[in-house]
Give the backbone structure.
Amino acid sequence: MFNAPLPAVLLAASMPALYFFQARAHTYWLELSFAPIDLSQGRYAGLLTSMLVHGGWAHAAMNAVAALTFGTPVARLFRGGVGLVVFLFLYIVSGVVATLGYGLVHWGSSDPLVGASGAVFGLIGAATRLTGGGGRVQPLTHRGVITMSIAWMAVNAVLGLIGFAPGSEGARIAWEAHAFGFLFGILAIGPLARWFAPLPDRTDAGKV
């Protein structure tokens, strides 16, 4: 029976839970969104708060499913209180890097960006290096890591070009943010695992 770690379950559950309150708010929490023009005007809070806001139920649900799926192997790698902090650090910083990268690419734009997709792609990048490793982080040069990375970025680029994904509801797909989040996750998981993953558990961390 599939038994996902509590941090991954709580992270996934938080997305529809937050959207439940967002959908009932008078302002729809749009003040928490991020627009690239914020950077030039010295407003940086949106780099973090935009991850709390989604564009619809489908958007929140899609990110929740992805967070549970790809957050599970990552959360299994890191155990205990320190592991929880590391897991959240990877998720949150992936999201901030993703949003910042998007803002730099679209400098000066006033189009709002919402959603945790960039942070989720950080988990996808990290999980990519855990696939087939028996709980150990695969090297970046591993054939499977390279193949999966190319596949993920190809899918991401296609979604960006055709402008469609479940839950997008006609909004532009921020595929650049996804790419930045993925890049951070796939690079950060290596040093984070070396520093914080408990050695005795590494061989068991990837088992379902």
About this structure: The CA atoms of residues 18 and 30 lie 13 Å apart. Residues 200-208 have pLDDT under 50 and may be disordered. The radius of gyration is 17 Å. Residues 80-105 form the longest helix (26 residues).
